[in-house]
Amino acid sequence: MLVQVYCDKQPQPLLVVVGSHCRIETLLTAVRGHCTAKTLTLVMKQDNDNCHSPSQRRRQACNALCLGFANDIKWVEGVDCGEELVRTHFSSVYYGTLLGKSVAIKKLNAEKTPVEQMEITMLNAARSEHIVKFIGVYLDFEENVSLVFEYASQDTVLSKLRNKVHILTRREGLTWFQQTVKAVNVLHSHSIVHRDIKTPNLLISGDGSVRLCDFGQAHYLANAPLYPSPGTRQYSPPEIFRGDLYSRASDVYALAIVLWEICNRVCTGEYLRPYKNISRITNDLQLLRIVAEEQLRPTLPLDLPDSLRELMQRMWHDSPSKRPECADILNELESIVA
Questions:
Q1: Which residues sit opposite 149 in a β-bridge?
Q2: What are 269-307's pLDDT values in tens digits?
Q3: H helix and E strand count, the chain
Q4: pLDDT class for 49, splitting at 50, 70, 90?
């Protein structure tokens, strides 16, 4: 089956899909999320498989997945998948190789939703030395979709903080944080919010620098109102409990919790999970409520420098409008890290 989607009266199709399992509603929903056209014309006709080699059909399917909204998406072949590294509700990440080089392979759910398609578009748009490098899309012969990334390492900021042998200096910790803010600043400049910033999503590469990863919850601000995401609750801002919209300031709140984790580890020499020392918190909903209604925040170390204390308190301010933007945070960090 060949499916073509035309936008208004444009002569060229916006979207072409080749395959026998086209989900028309999903395709049109995804198109509507990116296109302001008044009219979408759907053309369906039987396709002669002899006109397309398997490689050509798979390439067309891959291009269709990307929805034509990022023309320079790279289509890759020759991926060898190895051991599983991480599994979540939405995907699994494997170690693999591509042309002899180590890569990370993120296998998406079998259901190719517009959210997953949007992740591909965002990864292609937001490029930074501190965002995990997106190599391309791989589609195997069973039409399973995978995203291929550079392989940074299995180390994360969280694993480094938990490593009791590792002596974490203030300069090293603040450099990690500075690089994280740079990555988020790039996202925000493209009107993208990450919505799941946390220390497990900060990879440490071979040269010791940070790579922000996992864009499964990321979203464009302009597409639709952003209601609370299923991100990790220790990093969730008070507006999540109130049911307010997610914004750039919500990402900044999560960054404040990351900064606290790093500073607390530097000051005490031990890692402490946010709110772990507060015994009255027994579940996620209770944590969200107390953060919103009582303005509870993680306990600040006694010997934390005033400059970091004040920055952290502004970043996790109860009011999103009172939180600094990433560009302002970076300006302050320049003098603090120096």
A1: 104, 134
A2: 999 999 999 989 989 889 999 999 999 999 999 999 999
A3: 10, 12
A4: very low
Query: DSSP readout, 143-160?
Result: --EEEEEE---S-BHHHH
One-letter amino acid for residue 60 of the chain: Q
Residues 6 or more apart in contact with residue 262 via CB below 8 angstroms? 157, 161, 168, 173, 174, 176, 177
**Structure token digits, residue 20:** 């026998």
Mean pLDDT of 66-82: 64
C-beta atoms surrounding 58 within 10 Å: 20
**Helices marked H in the chain — which ranges?**
24-34, 54-65, 114-125, 157-162, 170-189, 238-242, 248-268, 284-293, 306-315, 326-337
- Nearest Cα neighbor of 252 from 317, 305, 206, 298 is 317
The pLDDT value recorded for residue 109 is 61
Joined tokens for residue 318: 């109860």
**Residue 335 CB neighbour total at 10 angstroms:** 8
CA distances from 144 to 69, 79, 124, 139, 141 (A): 21, 13, 20, 6, 7
- Tokens read off for 200: 């497990």
d(CA 141, CA 285) in angstroms, rounded, equals 43
Cα separations in angstroms, 51 against 32, 56, 57, 140, 220: 30, 9, 9, 20, 38
Q: What would the 3-class secondary structure string for 304-325 be?
A: CCHHHHHHHHHHCCCCHHHCCC
User: In this predicted structure, what is the pLDDT of residue 80?
Assistant: 85
